[in-house]
Each structure stands twice: as C-alpha cells, then as structure tokens.
Amino acid sequence: MKGKYRNYLDFSLAKFYKTLLRERLKNIVSWSSGDRLESGCTAVIGMCSKLPGILAANLTCLRNSKWPDLKAVLIVVDGKKGVLAEGFEEEILNKFSDLNIAFWYYSPQQAQLAEKIKLPYVYCWLSWCIAFSHVKTQTALIHDYDALVLGNFFEERYLAFQKSGAKIQGISWYNGNGILSSDRLATTFETFVDMAWIKSFSPIQLLHKIGKYKDRTVDYDILIDIQANHTSESERTIMPMDFNELVHPSQAIHQYTMFRKFSGKALPCFSIIMIPFFNFLSGDELALEKATQAISQGRRESIALFQDEVKINLSELTTSQVDWMLKQSIQVLISLKISPFKALIDYGTTLYRMAKTPSEKRWLGDFLPEQRQWINAATSL
C-alpha cells in the first residue's frame, strides 16, 4: 500500500478508530445552511482556555493587520461559560473594542465530551465549527490562536480571494499524512474560506477521516476531505505569507494538549517553548523570567512551565529548535519595535542548556543581521 499506511492492518485499525470517533461527535454541533450571508469577512479563533495569555498577543497583531472588510472576530473558548477568569472577557472586549469581538463557549455536553477525548484536532474542529455556525459574513478567516500577523498582507489576500472565485485560499499546499503538495489541497491555518461552501457540508464532514485518495492511503485533516473529494482544483488556491508577514510556531496548542493528555511523557516540544513569549507580549512582563525559573528549578523531563499541573518534558528539544524559536521571537520584537531586553537572552540560554547545546554553539543560528544586532544589544545589558 502507498501513502500514510503501508499495510492493510494499520489502515483498517486507523479507519475503524476514526470512524467510531466521528460517530461519537456527529451530533455535537450543527449549523443552518440557509442563513443569509452579508458581504465582508469574519475572523474565527479557537481559544485554548488553559493558555489565556496568548490571546492579547494574537489580537494585538491582528488589529495591526485589520482591513475595512474585517467585520468581526469570533473567539470560541474550549470550555463552558465560566472557564475563564472573572473579568478576562470584559478586559479583552474593552482593550480591543475596535475589532468587534464576540466570545462563544462550549455547551456543557460539548465541553464534557471534548475533555474526555482530549485530542487537539477535536478541540480545533469543534471550536471552528461553533464559530462557523455564528458567522454572518460571506467569508471567514481561520486565524490560528498561536499565530502573529506582522504585516498588512491580509487585505491583499482577501481581495485576491474575492476576485478568484475560489472556495478556499490557504498559504501553502498541504503535505503530509499521505497527501502530497502536488494534490493542491490548501492547509487550514491563516486560511480564507467561502462560508456558503463551508455550510453546504455538515460539520462532521470537516473532521479528520481515513480513506484513499488517488492510489494512496491518507488521513484527511480538517477541511482536507471536502477539498479533495467535493471541490474542483480551480476552486482551491494559495497565496503564501513569508517570514516578515507571519510568525506561527504551529503545533504549540497541539503540544500543550498532548502534554495534558500524557503529562511528563517525551513528546515533541519545539513549539510549546514559545508560549511564555506570547504571554510576555500579552502583558505579563515577568513571563520569560518565570519560565526561566521553572526550567532551572525542574528536571528536564518534568517542568511546570506554566505553573499548572501539566509537566512538560523537554528531553526531545534540540539546538536547531531553540534557534528557530528565538529567531521567530526576535522577528516579532523587531516588527513591533520592542527594544532589546535581557530576559529573552536568559530564557534562550536556559533552553539551550535543556537541549544540551555546548556553550560555544549557543546563539549561532541563522539569525538575520537585524536580529543579530538585537541579540548583541540585549546581551550587553
């Protein structure tokens, strides 16, 4: 067999599991396909309630990228009403009043089932579907919770999407899980979608699914099945965003959720280490110092990085991953015109130590000249 699964047994077991999962979830969320949609765009964000410090950083950058046709921002919190600290929602609404934000929450039934399953892609799918059910505009922007937009490229992309007549516009072609870039199926982060197209399907059709595409076994990610099997190639398009326009560690929320499910287990951790930086951008001035202290006081395999019960295992962290995280972070700081400060240097050095990076090989990543200047200035403080 070709594709993700190389033998029939693995393919059959995976298909059986995800078929059962879809059966459990098929009636948990719904929408009306006959709603009248207005012109404009709505940004939808699935919020991780256990990491609320990310939100303000995300919205600060989104506000800097706001364009006239962005009519509203819908934030779906992955828990029932009351899961956020008292006053948090009001603070966000007041701080970002120009974004026309609305918060939505899981119902008790949705929250209970999602927490029982505790899979990142289930939270993601459910949050997006709840948001889609409340979108009133013809277009939606799927805006990842851990994405920081640095330029004004959204407006250019939005106008190009409107002109193209496509149903979906991503920033890259999906490549993985048996799907090839040559299949021309758009990834789903920072993605514009036509809401009439989305609502022509039932919510469960958007969820992960195991199947065959062309001559390959595949694991269809969210929105990939409806592109591959129900949408023509001409209706799928991409418009890339480069490093100066988007910083997106990706997998940060996924990795945190997996550590919630398997606390202390050796798991990928290359993106989760950027969350303290998001907290800093959101206004927690001591976030990086607290993270540095937590790492210094803990064992490499069991770190309370977020001062909660979740133990983060950094044993799989590598030097190149620390380089990558720091390059991303410093690019944001330069874009936002934040002056050099020592706390990021201390945090980065502590991460290099966790990655067992020799002293002489720390801070030697492929930093751009302007980033190198920022590092040198911060180190000298």
What does this structure look like?
The chain is an alpha/beta fold and 381 residues long. It has 2 domains: 2-238, Alpha-Beta Complex (Spore Coat Polysaccharide Biosynthesis Protein SpsA, Chain A); 250-379, no CATH class. The protein is 40% helix and 14% strand. The chain is built from 14 helices and 12 strands. It has helices at residues 8-25, 55-64, 88-95, 108-117, 120-134, 153-164, 195-198, 224-230, 252-261, 275-281, 287-297, 319-335, 342-354, 369-379; strands spanning 2-3, 38-47, 70-77, 101-105, 137-142, 148-149, 168-170, 191-194, 209-213, 216-220, 236-238, 246-247. A 7-stranded mixed sheet has the order 4-3-2-5-8-7-11. It has a 3-stranded mixed sheet with strand order 1-10-9. Strands 6-12 form a two-stranded antiparallel sheet. Helix 2 (55-64) links the parallel strand 2 (38-47) and strand 3. Helix 2 (55-64) packs across helix 10 (275-281). The longest helix is centred in the N-terminal third of the chain and has 18 residues, at 8-25. The radius of gyration is 21 Å and the shape is globular. It starts with a strand and ends with a helix.
